[in-house]
Specification:
Largest sheet: 6 strands, antiparallel, barrel
Number of strands: 6
Low-confidence stretches: none
CATH superfamily of the domain at 6-90 and 133-146: Electron Transport, Fmn-binding Protein, Chain A
Oligomer: single chain
Order of helices and strands: HEEEHEEHE
CATH topology of the domain at 6-90 and 133-146: Pnp Oxidase, Chain A
Strand content: 35-45%
Shape: globular
CATH architecture of the domain at 6-90 and 133-146: Roll
Length: 153
């Protein structure tokens, strides 16, 4: 497992969601948006997967996974590659469950604030209708790819 330095850790801690890539049975890439519940500098990342569809099925067949996030304003980003596995909700610590609840509350609060300001966005609060998680995805990071163009660093 690869440890995350402060820059990578802070970058992913600020993300509302990441793009998760897994491999379908035929070897094609499947992408999905997932929320980070908890990130640890040791290289462990817990992702929320609420819909129990292709990402889940793909991880049962192949543990290869990557998560990608970019910041358009700073023209920077990272891709974290590693192994992912499904962790049942009964195996998740109360701290991780609390982190998920805090993320949902924060997202709803931010959406309310933006709606009050008149910023365009979803008029409802879709986060309030998300199903409760029955599992999470635990990623153990094996490689960090810096997506920032070399001439900008």
């Amino acid at each position: 497992m690869v440890k995350l330095d402060n820059e990578v850790y802070d970058f992913f801690s600020r993300q509302g969601f990441v793009v998760v890539s897994t491999l379908d049975k035929d070897g094609s890439i499947h992408n999905a948006c997932k929320g980070i519940v908890e990130i640890d500098k040791s290289g462990k990342i817990y992702l929320l997967d609420l819909y129990q569809q292709r990402t889940l099925e793909n991880l049962k067949n192949n543990q290869q996974i990557s998560i990608t996030a970019v910041d358009e304003h700073s023209f920077s980003g990272y891709c974290l590659k590693g192994k992912g596995r499904v962790v049942g909700i009964n195996q998740i610590t109360p701290q991780i469950n609390l982190a998920w609840e805090e993320k949902i509350s924060s997202r709803i609060s931010q959406r309310i604030i933006k709606n009050i300001r008149g910023e365009p966005g979803h008029p409802r609060h879709p986060e309030a209708n998300l199903p409760k998680p029955v599992y999470m995805i635990l990623i153990e990071v094996k490689e960090i790819v810096d997506l920032t163009p070399g001439h900008i660093k």
